Fold each of these.
Amino acid sequence: MTVMRTVLVTGANRGIGHATAGALHHAGWRVVLAARDGRAAQAAAEALGPGVLGVELDVTCPRSVAAAHEHSGPVDALVSNAGVLLDAGHDPLTVPVDAVRATLEVNLLGAWRLCQQFVPGMVRQGWGRVALVSSGTGTFHNGLFTGAPGYSLSKTAVNGLTTMLAARTSGTGVLVNAVNPGPTRTRMMPTAPRTPEEAAAALVAALTLPDDGPTGVLLSRGRPIPW
Ligand SMILES: NC(=O)c1ccc[n+]([C@@H]2O[C@H](COP(=O)([O-])OP(=O)(O)OC[C@H]3O[C@@H](n4cnc5c(N)ncnc54)[C@H](OP(=O)(O)O)[C@@H]3O)[C@@H](O)[C@H]2O)c1
């Protein structure tokens, strides 16, 4: 018998999150489509079809994250996708620190808060998949991208969070990985080459890893790449 798994995707009203929610829905997952605007979540969920639950979830707001969990119930998998790029065109010597703080609030602390809310249930049930959306801008291997310093460092920090959560959940049946979707044509990057559907495939690959699959790695198109 095939088990129907439930996945929650944040920032799923548009862009990579929306394409990922759609791909998972078509692959037979029960999808909780989360967006910070409740009406946008509802509309996007209805557009994907029956069985998709739209929930309001602002990753910067602890009450919103807790309320979304009450609404969704436990989930088997999580795509931490919500993100902002607020400091493009700045450099590390001049970027307004407030822009860095606002970026970290969503990209790092939002992802962390989300995992604190949903991952313990996965550990308790002995199975889970977590994909944290990262970026090539945050990898030491590429050299951190200085043209959006707060954004880049927020993704370096997401990579660090991934390794910590993977270590903490090691042996529990929960696999936690970062995913680099690659430059993707969305509101954030309107002229990038990759389609949201291609990026979504990279995220689906992280959620469909076998039980002996990797944890605590950075994945690109389903394969580990250097941090
Ligand atoms: N596009 C690329 O080339 C690229 C490359 C590497 C990584 N990424 C990452 O991919 C992820 C998705 O980005 P995208 O390209 O699809 O950009 P996008 O189209 O701008 O989508 C960003 C999503 O995040 C949501 N969001 C922002 N702040 C939020 C908050 N406080 N709570 C909940 N949701 C929030 C947005 O909601 P609203 O619609 O309400 O604003 C939107 O749904 C991000 O983590 C981004 O850093 C993108």
Amino acid sequence: MIFRQLLDGSTSTYTYLLADADSREAILVDSVFEQHLRDLALLRELELTLRYTVETHVHADHVTGAWLMREATSSKIAAPARAGVTEADLLLRQGDVLRCGSIELEVRETPGHTDGCTTYVLSDRSMAFTGDALLIRGAGRTDFQGGDPARLFHSVREQIFTLPPNCMVYPGHDYEGRTVTTVAEERTHNPRLGDRVREEDFIGYMKNLGLPHPKRMAEAVPANRVCGRPKDSTATPRTPTWGPVIRTFAGVWEISAEWLFQHRDEVHVIDVREHAEVEASPLPCLRGSMVLPLSELRARIADVPRDRPVVLLCPSGARSTSAAMILEKAGVENVANMRGGIVEWLGLGFTAAESGPQGRENQLRA
Ligand SMILES: N[C@@H](CCC(=O)N[C@@H](CS)C(=O)NCC(=O)O)C(=O)O
Ligand SMILES: [Fe+2]
């Protein structure tokens, strides 16, 4: 099985990617709206087909990426039946099994943090995705969305702590950077509801947490009730329209050499090699490209033209990746790295007619 734990740093939310290594079919547990392009990039780079997004509950602190994923990949949205959401394709109940290639996830209802919380357990019981029912050395709060500490106590004790001691527990959040625990570890060391803790102590603990409501609760709960369907399309993550750019998991927009060859005059091309290197290199400059070395780029953002999209180049496409990130951070709107760099360009046989820097290069060098 292919397995990845992904973090949304701003809400400390974990998203889990599970995929069958043979059929390449994948499931995403608890995707995050703002991480849509990251998750799409990973699916593409690992050559996976997303079959399902699965929700552990109606989140109060962030918006799910489920609806966006369905739009982008034709995946199906699976959600707990008791979460009361619309827009889902599959409503899951206690004892149901969600199948994706050879992966089977058993559905265990674990209400208490919210009344629709669900834990998903791999069929060999080696991994459990507990959402916010059981956190590492903690448990989800119980003060809104039908939360109830007594119910949570019984959910965890009966549905999670009955799993094998070495079952790995992957939570929906961790606010301290911890990533995984086991059933045995939590039964022994969870200060809120480990084996030694009595129900009334847990209830007393949870009733006195004194946490402020999540900052984004007013926006997140209604959005998650429709599986993350945005109110209007302007709220969806922006994908550039100037060309077939692809967001990589490394976090940069990329475009192909083939596209650049066919649309050379629609963009500015910036070669980020050092000047001396360009002069000494057997690798040519593309026709009309500007040389603006990576070492000077941060100080010369103002020299970057903005009237057309900017495509960045270097021999292998590595340094230009860094250049693309610098320009994006600096607010240059339409920017992409050319995948594979000049070597790829030459490999495609684009050499002669397309090489030779434009006069402007000298201007930029001055
Ligand atoms: N400060 C966070 C609050 C996060 C929060 O309340 N998280 C919920 C999960 S949705 C929780 O149960 N936290 C338990 C805890 O922090 O002990 C925010 O504003 O988003
Ligand atoms: Fe939650």
